[in-house]
Amino acid sequence: MRKFFTALVVVATSMSFGHAAQAQDARETEFVMGLMEQMNRLSVTFNREVCGFVLQDNEGNYSSTKASWGGEASCASMPLEPGMRAVSSWHTHAAWGLGYDGEVPSIQDVEGDMRFGVNGWVGTPGGRLWYVNGTTGSMTQVCGRGCLPEDPNFFPEEHGPVAETYSLDGLYARFGRSR
C-alpha cells in the first residue's frame, strides 16, 4: 500500500488547512485537471509519486504549492508557508506496477485527507483522476481511464473492474481488509 500521508504527519503542525472539507468545486476541478495532466505525465515517466496542495486565496483563485517528489509508493508535501490555506491535497500514483492496485486511492490516501480535513485528488497510472471527499471518505472518478496521461505499460484492470465511486468501507473491501 502506498503511504502518501505517512511523512505528512511530521509537518502537519506547521500547515494551515481550510475549514472542513467542502464539496467539489467546478473551478477547482478545472484547475486540478490542468495540473494533473502535467504531473501525471512526469510521474509515469520517472516512476515517482508527485504531490502537493491546492491553495485558494481570498479572491477564490486556485494555485498549487510547489510539487514534491516522492518515491514509487510514497510522497510527502512540503510545509505550507505562513498565510497559505490548503483546500485539498493532490498526488499521483507513479507508473504502473505489477501487483499494486494503483487505480484507486489507497486507504492511507483517504484517511489522511480525512484526518487533515481536506479533500484530495489522485491521478493513476491508467490515467484516471479521483476526487476524495475529506469529510465522508467517499471517492468519485472525475474522469476515467485515459483522461490523464497514462503509463504505456499499464495493464488494464489487473485487480478487477474499477468502480466509478467507492465509500471508505468499499475501498477496504477492495483491498481485502476490514476496519
Rounded mean pLDDT is 86
The succession of helices and strands, N to C, reads HHEEEEHEEEEH
Q: What's the tally of helices?
A: 4
Tell me the strand percentage band.
15-25%
Query: How many beta-strand runs?
Result: 8
- What overall form do the CA principal axes indicate? globular
What do these coordinates show?
It is a single chain. This protein is α+β, with helices and mostly antiparallel strands. The chain has helices spanning 8-11, 26-46, 107-116, 168-174; strands at residues 50-56, 62-64, 68-69, 86-92, 119-123, 129-132, 139-143, 165-166. Strands 1, 2, 3, 4, 5, 6, 7 and 8 form an eight-stranded mixed β-sheet that branches. Strand 4, helix 3 (107-116) and strand 5 (119-123) form a beta-alpha-beta unit. The protein is globular and about 45 Å long. 40% of the residues are buried. The model is unreliable at 1-21 (pLDDT under 50).
